[in-house]
Structure formats: C-alpha cells, structure tokens
Amino acid sequence: MGEPRPERADARRNRLRVLEAAERLFTERGVKNVSLDAIAAEAGVGKGTVFRRFGDRAGLAVALLDEREQELQAKIISGPPPLGPGAPPVVRVMAFLDAYLDLLDRHVALFMDSENASDGARYRIGSYHLWHRHLSHLIEAARPELDADYTAHVLLAPLAADLHNALREQGYDLTRLKTGLQAVATSLLPA
Amino acid sequence: MGEPRPERADARRNRLRVLEAAERLFTERGVKNVSLDAIAAEAGVGKGTVFRRFGDRAGLAVALLDEREQELQAKIISGPPPLGPGAPPVVRVMAFLDAYLDLLDRHVALFMDSENASDGARYRIGSYHLWHRHLSHLIEAARPELDADYTAHVLLAPLAADLHNALREQGYDLTRLKTGLQAVATSLLPA
DNA sequence: TCATAAGACGGACTGTAGTCCGCTAAAGAC
DNA sequence: GTCTTTAGCGGACTACAGTCCGTCTTATGA
Of A56, A91, B54, B141, which has the maximum CB count within 10 A? Predict the structure, then answer.
C-alpha cells in the first residue's frame, strides 16, 4: 500500500480537457454519435491518453456522470430526510427511487454508455455499490426476514438504463414509472 | 402483405451451417472468444451471409437460444400446471421465474450476447414480449390494482443476463437467487 | 430446356474500440 | 541549473462489427 502520488500537472490538464471535450461533443451530436477518436481529437490529445485515463468508453461515461451522482450520494448520506437519514426506511427507499429515476431520466444516454461495456460494467462501478449498500441496509431494517443483499439488487434492476430507455421509447412517461415502482416498493416493504 | 416466399435451398443450407458452426465454436472457445469472422470461416460461408441472416451478433445468439426458449414457451402456453394454465396466478409466476432462472443459468454467456447489442436489444426480441405478456396477465389477475404492464417489466428486470452473471461471479448460488426472487414475488402477489 | 428475374453470396471496405511501446516532459534531489 | 527517475504522452497498430455491391444461384414458367 504505497502513498498515492499527487496527479501530475499535464495529466490533470489532459483529464479536464478530455472531459470538457466529451461533454461538448455528447451534447452537440448525441452520445452514441461520438467516437473516442473524435473526443481525443477535440481535446487535442492522443487516443492513448483517453484510454489510459478512463479505461474504456464506459469509464468515460462514468466519469461524466460522477459529479451528478455524487450530489445524490451526498444527499443520501448526510442530507435532510427523507433522502437523508432520519426518515423511516420505507420512506427513504421511496425517496431514493424517485431521485434516482429523475437522475436517470435526465442522462439516459450517458447511463446506457456507462452500463454497457459488454461485460457487467454496471455492477462493478463504485456508485452501484453505494446504491446497493444503501438499499440493502434499509431493506434489512424494514424486513429483516428478507435476503436484503439480493433484494437490493432486485430493486435496482428496474433502474437499468436500457430498460428505462426502452420503456420511455414505448411511450411510458416518467410519472408512470415512478408510480409503478413506488407501488412495487410498497408491496415489498409494507410500512 | 404479400406471401412470404419459401426459403431458398442455398439460404437454408447456409443458415444451418452457420448455426452449427457457431454452436461448435461457442462451446469450444467460449462465447465471447469467438468472432463472427471465425464463425463465417468455420461455416465455410462469407461474412456477409452471416450478417444478412442474423442481422448482428445478438441476432445470432437469439437464434441459438430460440430452440431452448421455445421449449419453455410451449410449456407455459399449453403444458401442465403450474407452468401451464390451470394453477393460480401466483403459483404460475413462481413456476415461471424458477424455470427461467434455470434456463438463464445454463446459457448465461449466450443470453448476455443476445441482450447486449448496445441498444436495448433485450426488450425488442419476440421472446421478451412473450414473457412480458405472460407475467402481465398473471399480475393483472392476481393484483388488478397494480400497473400490470409495468410491474411485469419490473419482475423481468432481475432476470437480466448481466446481473445474473455478476451475482453468480460474486458467489451467489442459483438456489439463493431463486429463493430471493420467490420471496419478492410473494410480497408482490400475496396468495 | 432455357431465359429471366428475385434473391442470396462473399469478400473487400469502413469505422471504431482498445493495445502497445518508444519518446517526452514533469518533479524532486542535490 | 542539471541529473535522474518516473509517470504520462500519442499515434501507429490490431482486431472486430457491420456495410456494400458486383457476381452468381436458384426457382419459375414458357
């Protein structure tokens, strides 16, 4: 376990350039119409730099989502109830699902990229673990007889970006998804 | 709506060759270590032929899964209860989840391929619609006050191949997944 | 049996993700 | 300021998915 050295100046500069370029191109042309070559070019760096930094396409998407997700994470960990601590478990679960759906809906394309990666990228990234731990604790508190760890995965499954996107394209509106998921959660965790 | 012409002889021969080659290579080397070039070569046909037939990698996986899925579909539509008609809705839901998890577990890699396709391939293919309609009807019968259509999607979400794979790799055994999902279904659709 | 058109064939071609490695620049020691 | 170490750089390279289109095969019906 050595000391993690501080980020080198050129590395930091390039990291910010890439993120900026990615954000700009994604907004301009739509997430899936932008190649990593294009991002590297726009950022004025080599392709290798992008990949060394972010690993792959999914990693870049994760990095872009990070800020937004951290906002929600902060509210959950230390914000006011019902998202933050203080409210009864069931209420906190509802609040989380609602907030996550808002976030997801605002950034579907990016979430799809971040979850795709052909392997189970979604389940390996830090934020998924955080959401999972959060739900798992609340479920454990509300219904100790359930397998909380697994049930948390079940509650997160309908938040998959692919499904969300498919349903929205089918004409579902956000309210319907929220209401439906609330109803499921209510059945699962009766007050 | 013109008559669909019968499949041409060479087309049929090549289709079978490709499926056979794909199955052989997938078993030999593992699904994700096989390129479509390799399958085309093994089958002794051109690459274009593979793509014209199956559209893309996901389409080929779907075709290979088709037979197995049709078996389950037949049991659901006209087999004996509890999978087939006759048993109470809740019981049929349980039976379905159980049977699907068995199928999924036996062919995870193939399912992952068939569901990936970078867009929401899973939600567009015929068999998903069938599972969805089935669950939707049963939910409607058991809990008419729920949004059956959406709730069916929610119940199918934890059956995503990616998640299944990730949990199995985390050390979950199949029984735990089955039990956990049964418990969720029980809460959702009380007898 | 032959002519013809519908359709399938196959491989060259394009675009993209991701890897590799020789080169360059930053940071710290003196 | 210069030397040395170490991390970072970048673009050529590989491999694969998916497209395109000129050529060839099959089915049909006269």
Answer: B54
